[in-house]
Give the backbone structure.
Amino acid sequence: MQTRSRPNAPHTIISIRSQDFSDGYQKGRLFYLSGEAQTEPDEQYVINNLIALHEDRAFDNLTVLRWHIGFLMGMVAAGGGA
C-alpha cells in the first residue's frame, strides 16, 4: 500500500481539511496530554459527548460541530482509546 505525502500536513489518524476541525483536534490532543482529562477517551466517552452535542443542538452549526468532533478525535488519538 502506497501512502500519500502532503507537504506541511500534520501527521494525524485522518486527513484534516477544515481549520475548525484542526483547531479542535489540536486542543483535544493537548487537553489529554496535559493531564487535564478526567477520563480515558474510550467509546463510551465519545458516544456520551456526541449525545450531549446533539442535545445542545451543536449539529445545527457546522463550525461548532467540526471543532467538537475534532476535539474528540484529538483526545482519542492522544489517548489511544476508542
